[in-house]
Amino acid sequence: MLIAVGIATYWFLSAQPKIALTTRPPVPVSIAVATRQNVPVYLTGLGAVQASLTVGIRPQVDGTLQEVLFTEGQEVKKGDMLAKIDPRLFKAALDQARGKKAQDAALLVAAGKDLARSKTLALSGAIARQTVDQQQATVDQLKASIVADEAAIDTAQIQLGYTTIRAPSNGRIGIRSIDPGNVVHVSDAQPIAVLTRIRPSAVLFTLPARFLDDVHTALTGGPVEVIAFDQDNRRALSSGQLLLVDNAIDKTTDTIRLKAIFANDDEKLWPGAFVNARLLIETLSDVLVVPSTAVQRGPQGLFVWIVTPKDTAEPRQIKTGPTAGDLTVIISGLGDGERVVTDGQYKLKRNALVTVTSRPLPGVEGGK
């Protein structure tokens, strides 16, 4: 009898761990609630910032760079004096042109008097008509010379004006590449400095050509918003508008180039910087959304794990729409207010008991 009781006790005690092992603990998961709201749909393309104006400050006459009047990095206004070239040769050329005009003007006065006398003598027959004609030609020739002299004076004045280099536009001066004392030439490949205007600035970016119709449709509705984000696509730098779509598709990459303009008053966009340009093509009204982390891909297509009212997991096939930021639009398969798993899916099985590790959140932060 005692032996039988001992054997029964042994089997009962040895079976306890096995019974405990067959009961699986709840799976900890994070969840979100499927909600409805307006969702902006963006197209994102990699682009580069361009200054609205870039001008190389170059000499327009050859000469010695006498003086540089700007500071590197300085903001200048249109017409500000930037540099001076030795003007002495050009002043001399202007004086020479003026002297030549004065000489021809004096000759013209004398020739005009001779012409008047010749006409008087010709009336009395004292000289031949040919002499009068020759004198008239001399007067006409001197008049033409004076016109040429005036053009030479204008040219010399312009050349002299070029010895003073002025800012062609408002903007910021870059690094100086030529120091005073060097001889500069019109044909120099390197400018004295580069002037850029970054208010406003432009962003040139590309999108796949398949989105061309979407962009055109958006443009028909009015100005299209473009937001420039940093390279990590996390921080918004500036907001602007789409300026134009290029007139041809790049066949090698099957992309289309677009250009957006930004006021850039805070100068967060810097020429040459790479940015992510987000183009708003439409806003979907009152659509069902969930966090994109909830959407899984399986053999049957896209699905989500939902948490039933009994706190068990159940896979649900879904059909999705566009993705906007961290959200995915759900076209079918889910209902408003259903709970979806956003973290911990890899441990789930159908009808598995779950425990929520965080308070249920709406599909969109700050949503309904």
Strand content: 35-45%
Please name the fourth-level CATH homologous superfamily of the largest domain: Efflux pump adaptor protein, beta barrel domain
Order of helices and strands: HEEEEEHHEEEEHEEEEEEEEEEEE
Low-confidence stretches at least 5 residues in length (pLDDT < 50)? 1-13, 15-22, 364-368
Q: Any idea of the CATH class of the largest domain?
A: Mainly Beta
| CATH-defined fold name of the largest domain | Elongation Factor Tu (Ef-tu), domain 3
Task: Work out the number of β strands.
Answer: 21
Helix vs. strand class: alpha+beta
Shape, principal axes of CA atoms: elongated
Mean pLDDT: 89
Assembly form of the protein: single chain
CATH architecture of the largest domain: Beta Barrel
How much helical structure, as a percent, in the residues?
25-40%
